[in-house]
TrEMBL record:
Native organism: Kaistella gelatinilytica
The protein's name in its UniProt record: Uridine phosphorylase
InterPro entries assigned to the protein according to its UniProt record, in alphabetical order: DeoD-type, Nucleoside_phosphorylase_d, Nucleoside_phosphorylase_sf
CDD domains: PNP_EcPNPI-like
Catalytic activity, as annotated: uridine + phosphate = alpha-D-ribose 1-phosphate + uracil
Keyword Transferase: yes
Domain Nucleoside phosphorylase: 14-208
Keyword Glycosyltransferase annotated: yes
Keywords assigned by UniProt, alphabetized: Glycosyltransferase, Transferase
Pfam families tied to this protein: PNP_UDP_1 (PF01048)
PANTHER family per the UniProt record, alphabetical: FI09636P-RELATED (PTHR43691:SF11), URIDINE PHOSPHORYLASE (PTHR43691)
Amino acid sequence: MSVHIAAKKGEIAKIVLQPGDPLRAKYIADHFLEEVKLVSQTRNIYYFTGKYKGKEISVGASGMGIPSIGIYSYELFTEFDVDTIIRIGTCGAYTSDLKLFDLLNVEFSASESTYAKFAWGIEGDLISHQGTAFGQINETAKGMDLDIKPTHIHTSDIFYRKEEGLPALAAKYNCSAVEMEAFALFANAQHLGKNAATILTVSDIIPTREQISADQREKALKPMIELALETALKF
Ligand SMILES: O=P(O)(O)O[C@H]1O[C@H](CO)[C@@H](O)[C@H]1O
Ligand SMILES: O=c1cc[nH]c(=O)[nH]1
């Protein structure tokens, strides 16, 4: 049991799939896992542990933003001995070259956030995925005939902003999409020597204002969910 996760030691698997949305975690547990147990619901941030094709997997939410995933991923790695976290999130595309429901595998995250510097003394505004999960996702996607793009993304603290143009940091690192958590997940994993990857589904095309619905953000992300589950079998 940690400050924010009520599970007992041993109730969380070595690999955790982590959406931002607690109801997406519940949807995955309800539709894809067997022998499921709800192991934490502190603050309504659900964590479930169950079996996928016989393999023990946990799925639980990070909440939204760097501070929130900073807390949950740190407690998972340090208090529950989790080895690998695969974030499964949604993102906004900065370019209309990307389409709704495209899948991205995050190679690097760029951020204006001071989280990595002040938490761990990690300097710089760009952090890589950590460990082998990124490569396993690409391999697994090939085997499933799924198109996934290795991508640089922007992890921002901002969802709504005055200026609609490409933020300077996103331009600097050629980021084609934006979300709000990967940078802190990668920073925690780098500091602790753990595996961390992020798969994103494009939910918004920022230049054209196309977007998927709130219900689709919870339930229509099946290719990303199946890709993460199939990848988890390899750990
Ligand atoms: O769909 P999730 O995983 O929550 O990810 C994205 O969606 C939220 C914003 O709507 C932020 O958390 C952002 O990173
Ligand atoms: O952070 C995010 C997530 C989805 N869509 C956005 O525009 N931003």
